[in-house]
Design a protein that fits this description.
Length: about 280
């Protein structure tokens, strides 16, 4: 049984959702919907007790809990954030958490609980912290809109890195089967030009959490750090934040265009080698 959630204060509390189970369940699912009834995120739990992984670094802790499945009263907490940016395995980012989405703006939200055939939905409010002075709903809406735009650019950068790595893996898997002349004249130049874009988007030298101290952060990290700065308080974004966003967006556009040019230049040359060896071609 889902109990009606209490309203939450943005910046002060998470949204707390309590529910009662007559017996332990295999899984419990919660869906959060925004003010336009669009799905924000889905949370599924399959354990009777929620425990934070003790091996997670302190700067990655926090966020929403997992729904628990124990008999009796249970509590699930939503951190009032949207789904975050696309990330990739092994990504090390300094002073930012791109996988954590923007703060939800003020308004009426809905939580839907699902368990077997049971389904129940309640509305709740995210309200302004009454201690904030001189801050309006419009200010926080603007903060959300800019944060969302920054996150979109971060996702674009990260998805391009993912594509580049998939292509490089495909090429590396067939290198030994390709004539040395074709390898040196076509395959290796393609890999090298892809790597130039990859290295502009992400600091590939990062192997541990301390490496960003030694190697400069790249575009995806700079974007993610900008979003953290924009969301560091409950306030309207500064003119400086918009200026930096414009500059980083322009830099990103250069790299994405470069990636597209490299793809157009090489895929026609490379695909015949790939189709001959393992049947895989590059779109």
């Amino acid at each position: 049984v889902l109990f009606k959630p209490t309203d939450a204060l943005r910046g002060l509390t998470n949204a707390s959702i309590q529910y009662y189970l007559k017996e332990q369940k295999d899984t419990i699912t919660f869906e959060i919907y925004d003010t336009r009834d669009q799905l924000i995120n889905t949370f599924t739990g399959s354990k009777p007790k929620y425990e934070v992984d003790p091996n997670i670094p302190y700067w990655l802790k926090g966020g929403s809990s997992k729904p628990t499945t124990a008999k009796g009263i249970n509590t699930f907490t939503w951190d009032m954030r949207y789904t975050g940016a696309t990330t990739f395995d092994g990504m090390i980012i300094w002073s930012a958490r791109p996988a954590r989405g923007p703060k939800a703006p003020l308004g009426t939200y809905k939580v839907k609980m699902k368990s077997g055939d049971y389904e129940k939905t309640y509305a709740f409010e995210i309200k302004m912290d009454p201690n904030l002075k001189g801050i309006t709903k419009e200010d926080l809406d603007e903060q959300f809109e800019l944060s969302n735009k920054i996150m979109g650019k971060t996702t674009a950068a990260n998805e391009t890195v993912i594509k580049i790595r998939e292509i490089k893996k495909t090429l590396n898997d067939v290198k030994d089967e390709i004539d040395i002349t074709d390898l040196n004249n076509t395959i290796m130049p393609f890999i090298n030009e892809l790597s130039e874009v990859e290295e502009a988007l992400y600091q590939v030298k990062n192997q541990s959490g301390q490496d960003p101290l030694n190697f400069p952060i790249k575009l995806n990290n700079r974007l993610a750090s900008l979003r953290r700065s924009v969301e560091s308080g409950e306030a309207k974004p500064t003119n400086g934040a918009y200026k930096v966003f414009e500059e980083l967006s322009a830099e990103l556009e250069i790299e994405l265009n470069k990636f597209n040019r490299v793809m157009q230049k090489y895929k026609v040359k490379v695909n015949p080698f790939l189709s001959k060896n393992d049947g895989t071609v590059i779109d």
